[in-house]
């Protein structure tokens, strides 16, 4: 296997006036992966993408593509293309001509252009619309044209900056699956910017979770969701019950509340103040297993939302847990809890994580 990463950032920073948009980022992106930069607005995702593409110069550090230092090279000398959220299609050209644009400019022979444009339109399922103008297309179709245009000259890396943000939720979900399929088919490294954690979880081989210009954690979707490295990652990725307390002998004592049994974690001294996190779907309300610790609390709210029901359970004054249950065929609706009832709940100790 070729171990040279498709993209390597080595100590890369970008400073604007007296603040850092990106601070000393080290990052390797393996060739052929769907890689996402994920984080809240302003965390430095776009700036990172722009430095990979050559649209922004790092204040320090270096950018390598396939082992070559490209820090000083302009965008057109890098084997990279970008798909922007705005699509930026040429309205006066047909769809086929939009896709052919870059190839024509590079002097590719007519027959080859026709063939490659045809292949690309097939890949994005727009073959029947080659002669139409972009104005006659839906948002999802325009997005596909932009994608075909960016892929047609076979870049080594494709950068995508929130390309699905303008689409409605249903179309967005559909395009997420399609985009991932297209990436697998073409085998090109995709670097995808999003602030939507569901999107990143669904599509990515690996995710870098960013906050304030730094990478908080980089790993597979499962790594970052199941084993968040910090309080920030636990709260940003999905819903977490985050609590603070004092670590002592394999449990965390909440202030004014019970001690919560937690998963093994070495290197924490007794008496240390820590945060703990347990996911709503990891909490059981019945059929407890041996080895689980079972606590009790009062149901404060029951929220039905179709496939799931969420309970808010007060476990101690001011400490409320969110618990998610699937409304599967086997769950009996009449067994749902209502407000004011005292219930038992529990979790496997390894699902209650102590966070840095
Ligand atoms: N040209 C610029 N001049 C000054 N500050 C900038 C410039 N570009 C970005 N910044 C700042 O750098 C920080 C990171 O911006 P960036 O656009 O990379 O974040 P982002 O994570 O992509 O956010 P969003 O999701 O909102 O696009 C922000 O605080 C932003 O205000």
TrEMBL record:
EC top class, as a word: translocase
Record domain ABC transporter: where: 7-237
UniProt-recorded name of the protein: Spermidine/putrescine import ATP-binding protein PotA
SMART domains: AAA (SM00382)
Keyword field contains Translocase: yes
Assembly behavior: The complex is composed of two ATP-binding proteins (PotA), two transmembrane proteins (PotB and PotC) and a solute-binding protein (PotD).
Catalytic activity: ATP + H2O + polyamine-[polyamine-binding protein]Side 1 = ADP + phosphate + polyamineSide 2 + [polyamine-binding protein]Side 1
A GO MF term: ATP hydrolysis activity
PANTHER family from the UniProt entry: SPERMIDINE/PUTRESCINE IMPORT ATP-BINDING PROTEIN POTA, SPERMIDINE_PUTRESCINE IMPORT ATP-BINDING PROTEIN POTA
GO cellular component: ATP-binding cassette (ABC) transporter complex
Similarity remark: Belongs to the ABC transporter superfamily. Spermidine/putrescine importer (TC 3.A.1.11.1) family.
Cited InterPro entries: AAA+_ATPase, ABC_SmlMolc_Importer, ABC_transporter-like_ATP-bd, ABC_transporter-like_CS, Mo/tungstate-bd_C_term_dom, P-loop_NTPase, PotA-like, PotA_ATP-bd
Database matches in SUPFAM superfamilies: MOP-like (SSF50331), P-loop containing nucleoside triphosphate hydrolases (SSF52540)
Species this protein is from: Streptomyces yokosukanensis
Matching Pfam families: ABC_tran, TOBE_2
Enzyme Commission number: 7.6.2.11
Stated role: Part of the ABC transporter complex PotABCD involved in spermidine/putrescine import. Responsible for energy coupling to the transport system.
Keywords associated with the record: ATP-binding, Cell membrane, Membrane, Nucleotide-binding, Translocase, Transport
């Amino acid at each position: 296997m070729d171990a040279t990463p498709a993209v390597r950032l080595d100590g890369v920073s970008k400073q604007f006036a007296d603040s850092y948009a990106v601070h000393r980022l080290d990052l390797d992106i393996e060739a052929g992966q769907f890689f996402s930069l994920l984080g809240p607005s302003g965390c430095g995702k776009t700036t990172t993408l722009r430095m990979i593409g050559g649209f922004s110069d790092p204040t320090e550090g270096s950018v390598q593509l396939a082992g070559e230092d490209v820090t000083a090279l302009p965008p057109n000398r890098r084997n990279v293309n970008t798909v922007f959220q705005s699509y930026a299609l040429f309205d006066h050209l047909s769809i086929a001509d939009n896709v052919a644009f870059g190839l024509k400019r590079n002097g590719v022979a007519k027959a080859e252009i026709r063939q490659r444009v045809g292949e690309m339109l097939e890949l994005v399922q727009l073959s029947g619309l080659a002669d139409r103008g972009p104005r006659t297309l839906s948002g999802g179709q325009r997005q596909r044209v932009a994608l075909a245009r960016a892929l047609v000259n076979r870049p080594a890396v494709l950068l995508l900056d929130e390309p699905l943000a303008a689409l409605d939720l249903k179309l967005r979900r559909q395009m997420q699956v399609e985009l991932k399929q297209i990436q697998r088919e073409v085998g090109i490294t995709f670097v995808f910017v999003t602030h939507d954690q569901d999107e990143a979880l669904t599509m990515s081989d690996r995710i870098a979770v960013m906050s304030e210009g730094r990478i908080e954690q980089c790993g597979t979707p499962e790594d970052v969701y199941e084993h968040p490295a910090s309080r920030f990652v636990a709260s940003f990725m999905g819903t977490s019950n985050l609590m603070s307390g004092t670590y002592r002998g394999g449990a965390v004592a909440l202030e004014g509340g019970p001690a919560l049994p937690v998963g093994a974690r070495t290197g924490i001294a007794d008496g240390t103040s820590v945060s703990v996190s347990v996911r709503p779907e990891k909490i059981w309300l019945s059929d407890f297993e041996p080895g689980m610790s079972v606590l009790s609390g009062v149901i404060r709210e029951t929220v039905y939302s179709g496939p799931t029901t969420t309970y808010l359970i007060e476990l101690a004054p001011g400490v409320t847990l969110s618990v998610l249950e699937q409304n599967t065929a086997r769950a009996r609706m009449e067994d749902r809890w209502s407000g004011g009832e005292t219930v038992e709940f529990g979790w496997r100790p390894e699902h209650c994580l102590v966070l840095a």
